[in-house]
Specification:
Strand content: 5-15%
CATH class of the largest domain: Alpha Beta
CATH architecture of the largest domain: 3-Layer(aba) Sandwich
Radius of gyration: 21 Å
Number of strands: 11
Shape: globular
Oligomer: single chain
Number of helices: 15
Largest sheet: 5 strands, parallel
CATH superfamily of the largest domain: P-loop containing nucleotide triphosphate hydrolases
Order of helices and strands: HHHEHEHEEEHHEEEHEHHHEHHEHH
C-alpha cells in the first residue's frame, strides 16, 4: 500500500526534521501551561482556546462571533493574563470616536504646543468588545494599527508594542444598533471563530464553578512576551513542502475560480473569493497549528483543520446563495472535498 503524505515525515535538503521536532517539543512547553491556566477559568471551548493560541503565535488578529454568554470576553481576558504583556479593553459603542481608540493631540494654552495623548490601542493585547456596535469610522481606526502595527497622530507615526494582537468579539444575533464590519476590515482578521454552546456536562461544570463559594479562579502568568516572539520566529522555520504550498494555493484559487476545479455550480454562489492575504494567513496558521502538535513540518490535515477559520469571513456569497440557504461553511466544505489532497 502506498504511503500517504501525512503518514511519513517530509525530507528536504538542508532541513533536519528530527532536530526541528526536538527543538519545537522543548520550546512549545509553555503552550501546555497556558492551556492549563486558561482552563482554570474556561470550561470546554478547547477549539476556541487552540485557535486563540494559533492567532497569537502566528501574529494574526482574531474575530470571535457568538451569542452572548459563551465566554468570549472571558477567554480573551484569560489569555492575556497568562502573559506579562499589557492588556487593554475597548468597549465599542455607537458614540465612540476614532480618537477614543487611537489617541489624539491636545493643545496646551500655556506652551502653545500640541502634546500627544495615546489611546488604549497602545498595548500588547487589545480586546475590541462588541466591535460591530461602533460605526465604520471607528472600526476603520483600527485598520492602520492592525496592518502596519503603527498609529499616526497628526504628522507623527508611533510604533505599537510587540507583540500586538487585536481580539474582537461580535454578537451575530442582535442587529439593532450594530454596524456590519466592512470587507476591508474583516479581511484584516487572520481568523474568524464561530462559537457554539457548551455540552450538557460542560455547562454543569460551568454552573458549579460559578456557584462555588471560593473566589473565581484567575489564570496566572506562565509565559513572557519574549518567549512568544521567540516562538513566532521558530514557527516560521517549520518546514512546508512545495506540495502543501500548492494545496493551499489550490484551495484559495478554488474560491475565486471554482469552475477550474470542477465546481462550476459554485460560481454563481460566490461573489468574491479569498485574497492573497488569505493564502498568507492559511500558510501561517497551518505552521502554527503544527507547532501546537509539536511537529516541525506541515501536513494536509493542518491546512484542513484551520481552513474554515481563515476563509469563512473572506468569501462573499451572492443573493442567489442566500436564497438557497447556502453559507460560506458549505462552500468551503465542497472545495475541501474536491481539491486534491497531496
Amino acid at each position: 500500500m502506498e504511503e500517504s503524505y501525512s503518514e511519513k515525515e517530509p525530507i528536504s535538503e538542508g532541513v533536519d526534521i528530527q532536530k526541528l521536532n526536538e527543538i519545537i517539543a522543548k520550546k512549545s512547553m509553555f503552550v501546555r501551561l497556558m492551556k492549563e491556566e486558561i482552563g482554570r477559568a474556561i470550561i470546554g471551548q478547547k477549539n476556541m482556546v487552540d485557535k486563540l493560541l494559533i492567532g497569537l503565535l502566528s501574529d494574526g488578529h482574531i474575530l470571535l462571533e457568538g451569542v452572548p454568554g459563551l465566554a468570549k470576553t472571558l477567554a480573551i481576558n484569560s489569555l492575556s493574563k497568562t502573559m506579562d504583556g499589557e492588556f487593554s479593553r475597548i468597549q465599542f459603542t455607537p458614540d465612540l470616536l476614532p480618537a477614543d481608540v487611537t489617541g489624539t493631540l491636545i493643545y496646551s494654552q500655556k506652551t502653545g504646543d500640541f502634546s500627544v495623548k495615546k489611546g488604549p490601542i497602545f498595548a500588547n493585547f487589545i480586546l475590541a468588545d462588541e466591535i460591530n456596535r461602533a460605526p465604520a469610522k471607528v472600526q476603520s481606526a483600527l485598520l492602520e494599527a492592525m496592518q502596519e502595527k503603527q498609529v499616526t497622530l497628526g504628522n507623527e507615526t508611533y510604533k505599537l508594542p510587540k507583540p500586538f494582537l487585536v481580539l474582537a468579539t461580535q454578537n451575530p444575533v442582535e442587529q439593532e444598533g450594530t454596524y456590519t464590519l466592512p470587507e476591508a476590515q474583516s479581511d484584516r482578521f487572520m481568523l474568524k471563530l464561530v462559537l457554539d454552546y457548551p455540552t450538557l456536562e460542560e455547562e454543569r461544570q460551568i454552573i458549579r464553578l460559578n456557584l462555588n463559594k471560593e473566589k473565581f479562579p484567575s489564570p496566572k502568568k506562565v509565559v513572557s512576551t519574549e518567549e512568544i516572539l521567540e516562538a513566532r520566529k521558530l514557527i516560521r522555520s517549520i518546514y512546508m513542502d512545495d506540495k502543501i504550498e500548492q494545496y493551499i494555493l489550490d484551495i484559495i484559487f478554488a474560491t475565486r475560480n471554482p469552475e477550474k476545479y470542477n465546481l462550476p455550480h459554485l460560481q454563481p454562489l460566490i461573489r468574491f473569493g479569498g485574497s492573497p492575504r488569505a493564502s498568507i494567513a492559511l500558510a501561517k496558521a497551518s505552521k502554527a497549528y503544527a507547532f501546537l502538535q509539536q511537529r516541525g513540518y506541515v501536513i494536509p490535515e493542518d491546512v484542513r483543520e484551520i481552513c474554515y477559520d481563515v476563509l469563512r469571513h473572506r468569501i462573499g456569497i451572492t443573493y442567489e446563495a442566500e436564497a438557497e440557504d447556502i453559507d460560506q461553511e458549505q462552500i468551503i466544505t465542497e472545495i475541501l472535498n474536491k481539491v486534491e489532497i497531496p
